[in-house]
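Q: How do we represent a protein-ligand complex in a form that can be generated token by token?
A: Start from the inputs.
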Amino acid sequence: MPKGSGRIPPEIKGLTESEDVRPDRFMRLLRAGRIVIPANPRHKSLRPCAIGEGTRVKINANIGTSRDYIDVKEELQKVKVAVQYGADAVMDLSTGGNVRDIRKKVVRASTVPVGTVPIYEAACSAATQGPMRMDSDDLFRTIEAHAKDGVDFMTVHCGVNRQTVASLKKHKRVTGVVSRGGALLIAWMHETGLENPLYEDYDHLLDLAKDYGFALSLGDGLRPGSIADATDVPQLQELVVLGRLVERARKARVGVIVEGPGHVPLNQIEANVRIEKAVCRGAPFYVLGPLVSDIGAGYDHITGAIGGALAAYFGADFLCYVTPSEHLSLPTVEDVRQGVVASRIAAHAADIARGRGLAWDLEMSTARKRLDWDRMYALCVDPQRAEEVRRKRGSRSPDVCSMCGDLCAMKMVDKILRDSQSR
Ligand code: SF4
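Then emit the structure tokens for the protein with iron/sulfur cluster bound:
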């Protein structure tokens, strides 16, 4: 079993039950690397979750400070809200303040798996005084520190190498590179003339993952940042490199997830998922959105949820949420809530289409038919919001809502249907 899949039994039984997957099938997929359980033994408050084939679609919420906004309490509140509204994982992307201290607090506060992107810290810490002063040892020391702090999965942009960067230079793009980790590595490689240490010393990375029990999330440093760049040559060449690295991770018995785009038009989403699943031999696919248009700023939680629902329907396993502040600012707590809810709905919509989770919807419809408002609120993905909206414009007929008032369709026809059915 991949070591990066973390400590498995005794939680395994609970996971197979909650995922409604037969234990033998679950174990087969886990051993094949098609399911990954990011679970660092040092993350004591963790309730492990399974990501991959045959399981419920999972969602991740990114939180973390920037250099402009450093408010640790707010970031911890974001973790709380993200988990409350259904995030299955959180990623701490902090780059401002004492990032190690923030990370430790996030791990302690989180009951769901925590992910990080160590290159941010390695390239920007006081020790390296900027990306160009970093050396390979700094990077691996940082990865080890994240592992010691209990991080369950780490994004590592191993596919950004000389070959893929050469491809990037050859193929014209509208938005170049939009991955922060990818950009840092490209700048470092350009300045030093050296190969990406995450690619060159991949075996060392695998050793660390195995020793500490964290999973790798192979980042897509060359993901498209605009619809015009979607599914271009550099993106696909990087994916081919990631596919080879997946094989090596599996041989080393390290759990590995593959990250995907980015900005993808609706008509290319199916191809993106199928190519990843083929090239990476069924490795769990973690898509960032994807955003199906470039013009949704302010509403990109919706743009991302549309893409996420379709990607998950076609087989993506893990959706990274997008908040309304995407492309505009660091998200607030409210943005996090809206992002998680949008992504949660997208994941659930895909689950329904994949034949799971129908009971929840049936229960909601039954409560709706009974005009049982308390039950409806309880079943909503965001009960508080549902209650607030109904209260904002109440009806003179208290058992219905003000959309139709006393012309409530369900109420009118319910009696007729009941009478005809009892005859
Ligand atoms: S009033 Fe209209 S919208 Fe409201 S519950 Fe009845 S049928 Fe539905």
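Confidence is low (pLDDT under 50) at residues 3-8. The pocket of iron/sulfur cluster is lined by residues 400-401, 403-404, 408-410 (CB under 6 Å).
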